[in-house]
Design goal:
single chain; about 110 residues; 3-stranded antiparallel beta sheet; 8 strands
Length: about 110
């Protein structure tokens, strides 16, 4: 990041998570979110939303998957953010949103 008031110049490569790198599996027990490792990422932040606009942090993981338990099956929107450190500063990726559809069958 550079400005006229900066003493140092930093060019940061922000981690990116793409649709082709993600997978979601919906079961009666919950949702399993999976993704391919993002180069340079040290952890991932998972958030959720009821409306797809305001997201709340659900948890963090160093793994490339995250299990959302069945108690949260009413939620439809999840967000994955890759996190890395550059020169001691935390850098977050552009959020990747995952929409989950639930279908209930009544017999």
């Amino acid at each position: 990041v550079y400005s006229n008031w900066s003493k140092k110049k930093y060019f940061v490569s922000v981690p990116v998570l793409k649709k082709s790198q993600t997978k979601k599996t919906v079961t009666a027990n919950g949702v399993n979110l999976q993704w391919k490792k993002v180069t340079g990422a040290t952890k991932y932040i998972i958030s959720y939303s009821k409306d797809g606009k305001k997201f709340t942090k659900l948890g963090e993981t160093k793994k490339t998957n995250f299990k959302v338990n069945k108690n949260m099956l009413t939620l439809q929107y999840f967000r994955i953010i890759a996190v890395t450190k550059v020169n001691g500063k935390t850098v977050k990726s552009i959020p990747y949103n995952v929409t989950v559809s639930f279908y209930y069958h009544y017999y």
